[in-house]
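RECORD TYPE: inverse folding
INPUT: structure tokens
STRUCTURE:
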């Protein structure tokens, strides 16, 4: 018996280089007559995170050994192989386990084929083995979702043979010593599903194609995955593997996969902030270690405050919510309990867990209960004076080492810090509504914010399972600042005679879940106008349509009327419905303002909104508000629904070609005015002789 341990820190990635070593070890075990069975196990707390995604950006080196060679060696061996899984087995890691004859795992393990999230498909036999093991329909669902599935469910599906409460390696070794018979999945016939005859295959495949997005709008990999599973049902194993390889090759070079792999790595760059490394590695010197957050406080029991409280409670951190408004507190209590009960209905929490989490959030009107909080987040009304008063009050109550954070979406963190005696412990933590759902968190660095405070903020982001992005302290930070320009162009198009419904339709066709007008209706027109006033831009538009709509109490979805109208009988009152009243108001005010009506193409609509994002993003990089282009892309993919298969605004600029973007922005500047002045960075990248890349600027 031979144990082969996958050991390639940090995630046992099955890179070309590592596969060469693994292949040697496997071949040696196969050649050794004293070895009658082989056990695979993983070091570093997991089985394997799959193939090394970095390898896909390079052409296959001549003579390279890949995960396919490793799996083929296992497949061809006459000796039984057992996968002993503890931790995650993902992608190629699970495909290696599928090539084994037996698969056992610990209860905490999670297994998955997440390739679809990278715009790929399992390219090492997974699309051929899984349908043979659990049926095409279940296999498709498993691979189209791409989640890391808990072991208990994977056992139910029939992928695992056993869950081992004790030492999974010992169990595997004892099983190996019995020299169990070979059980190649490749020898099985793929079925559709227990209750579905094979004749239904064409129908099932056709249905599957209808259920995924179009190939040119985020569904390219899904359609190819369905093709691969169809091959598993229709072709002999070897032919199916060959077809899978061809489909994989098509995907790995596709724009969508390149964009999704950019997002994958950009996410993992976020917390790498120059000057923070030492602090983030639990520096031995206490003063530079990150702070433990054993208790959190929230000021303000409104929508944001209760969402933030739920977010901490979901991560196991007790929270005190302070608000003197009884009505707000009552509403917040209902929101909190409603959220946890909903998770019980969804099977994500037991009643007991929901109760405990609900109990971990306490409400009070006594600010003194914040005294021992390690972190307090204020979520009060978006007014500079109100915020400063809150910080001054907190500074006198919260223990000296406590961090004080603002959930402000636009305001000056330095002004709040100046109201305290601990500016080094003041920062922005900008959650996005609903805070307990939206994955994005902007960490706003004040002038005095210390490295320890920032490193703690990133640790908090990881604890809350957020995509935490560092932003400089400038109006609107990263996301909202760029959205101001995006919405500015949408508004200008409406003043020029393009209906809000058409603008939104064009942006939804590009891949956004909703367009700019529906997004404004969702966040509230009164909020939008208030922020314009804070920015000093209210009334600077060419018309006062926004002011008039707010005056008419057309505040958006919450008022059942904004730029669109809403009807409870349609989409539960959340479906935007074009409203001729608003279209006429735009036309009437545009006429008064002498704005000429223009016929525009869908392309111009798309370019004006997207290039406004790109130009502002380039400015934010120049000004040091955003640290990296990839950070900006993560903000938009996770905070504003930018289609991930286009990689985010900065990646998309490269897709279009920076020189072309720059030229169009110069044309817009000539046509529409100085608001379109291109950023110097954009001009520089556009002019660079090599293929200028904004995503890597
Ligand atoms: N390839 C290369 N690097 C990877 C990697 C991978 N598959 N997975 C993680 N890393 C790096 C990551 O960039 C980071 O680097 C470090 O490891 C820690 O990652 C042929 C084609 C495994 C659950 O999609 O889900 O197999 O920042 O912060 O939170 O069919 O990483 O330290 O320099 O995420 O503990 C399919 C992706 C590949 C799994 C660990 N597999 N990874 O989470 O750590 S394609 C995936 C994850 C494939 C085959 C196909 C997670 C994790 P750095 P981390 P974590």
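DESIGNED SEQUENCE:
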């Amino acid at each position: 018996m031979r144990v082969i341990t996958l050991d390639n820190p940090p995630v046992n990635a099955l890179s070309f280089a590592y596969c060469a070593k693994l292949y040697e070890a496997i071949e040696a075990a196969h050649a050794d007559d004293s070895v009658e069975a082989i056990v695979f196990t993983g070091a570093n707390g997991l089985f394997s995170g799959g193939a090394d995604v970095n390898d896909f950006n390079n052409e296959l080196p001549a003579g390279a050994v890949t995960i396919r060679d490793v799996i083929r060696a296992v497949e061809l061996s006459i000796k039984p192989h057992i996968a002993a899984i503890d931790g995650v087995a993902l992608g190629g890691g699970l495909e290696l386990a599928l090539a084994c004859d037996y698969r056992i795992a610990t209860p905490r393990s999670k297994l998955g084929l997440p390739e679809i999230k990278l715009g790929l498909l399992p390219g090492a036999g997974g699309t051929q083995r899984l349908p043979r093991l659990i049926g095409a329909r279940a296999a498709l669902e498993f691979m189209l979702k791409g989640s890391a599935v808990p072991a208990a469910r994977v056992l139910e599906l029939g992928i695992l043979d056993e869950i081992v409460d004790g030492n999974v390696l010992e169990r595997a070794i004892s099983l190996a010593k019995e020299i169990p018979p070979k059980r190649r999945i490749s020898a099985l016939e793929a079925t559709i599903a227990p209750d579905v005859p094979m004749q239904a295959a064409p129908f099932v495949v056709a249905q599957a194609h209808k259920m995924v997005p179009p190939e040119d709008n985020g569904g390219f990999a899904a359609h190819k995955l369905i093709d691969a599973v169809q091959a598993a049902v229709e072709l002999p194993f070897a032919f199916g593997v060959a077809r899978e390889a061809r489909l994989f090759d098509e995907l790995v070079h596709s724009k969508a996969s390149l964009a999704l792999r950019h997002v994958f790595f950009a996410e993992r760059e976020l917390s790498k902030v120059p000057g923070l490394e030492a602090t983030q590695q639990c520096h031995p010197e206490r003063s530079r270690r990150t702070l433990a957050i054993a208790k959190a406080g929230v000021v303000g029991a409104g929508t944001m405050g209760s969402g933030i409280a739920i977010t901490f409670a979901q991560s196991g951190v007790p929270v005190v919510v302070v608000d003197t408004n009884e009505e707000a507190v009552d509403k917040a209590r209902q929101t909190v309990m409603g959220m946890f009960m909903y998770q019980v209905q969804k099977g994500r929490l037991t009643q007991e867990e929901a109760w405990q989490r609900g109990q971990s959030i306490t409400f009070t009107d006594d600010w003194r209960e914040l005294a021992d909080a390690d972190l307090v987040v204020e979520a009060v009304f978006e007014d500079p004076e109100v915020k400063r008063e809150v910080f001054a009050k907190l500074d006198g109550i919260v223990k000296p080492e406590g961090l004080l954070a603002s959930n402000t979406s636009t305001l000056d963190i330095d002004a709040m810090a100046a109201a305290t005696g601990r500016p080094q412990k003041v920062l922005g933590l900008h959650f996005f509504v609903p805070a307990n759902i939206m994955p994005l968190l902007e960490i706003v660095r004040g002038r005095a914010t210390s490295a320890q405070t920032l490193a703690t903020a990133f640790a908090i982001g990881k604890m809350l399972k957020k995509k935490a992005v560092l932003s400089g302290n400038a109006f609107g930070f990263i996301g909202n600042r760029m959205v101001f320009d995006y919405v500015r162009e949408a508004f200008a198009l409406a003043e020029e005679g393009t209906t809000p419904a058409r603008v939104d339709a064009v942006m939804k066709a590009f891949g956004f879940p909703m367009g700019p007008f529906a997004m404004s209706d969702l966040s509230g027109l009164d909020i939008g106008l208030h922020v314009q006033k804070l920015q000093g831009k209210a009334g600077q538009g060419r018309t006062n349509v926004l002011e008039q709509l707010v005056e008419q109490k057309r505040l958006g979805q919450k008022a059942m009327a904004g730029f669109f109208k809403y009807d409870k009988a349609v989409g539960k009152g959340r479906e935007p419905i074009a409203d001729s009243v608003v279209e006429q108001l735009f036309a009437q005010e545009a006429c008064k303002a002498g704005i000429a009506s223009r016929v525009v193409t869908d392309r111009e609509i798309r370019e004006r909104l997207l290039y406004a994002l790109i130009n502002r993003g380039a400015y934010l990089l120049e000004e040091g508000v955003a640290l990296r282009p990839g950070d900006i892309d993560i903000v938009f993919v996770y905070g504003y629904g930018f289609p991930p298969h286009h990689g985010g605004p900065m990646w998309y600029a490269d897709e279009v070609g920076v020189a072309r973007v720059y030229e169009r922005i110069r044309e817009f500047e000539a046509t529409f005015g100085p608001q379109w002045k291109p950023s110097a960075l954009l001009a520089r990248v556009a002019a660079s002789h090599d293929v200028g890349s904004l995503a890597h600027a």
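NOTES: Residues 10-11, 13, 49-54, 67, 88, 90-92, 95, 114-115, 118, 120, 122-124, 126, 268 surround (2S,3S)-3-hydroxy-2-methylbutanoyl-COA (CB under 6 Å).
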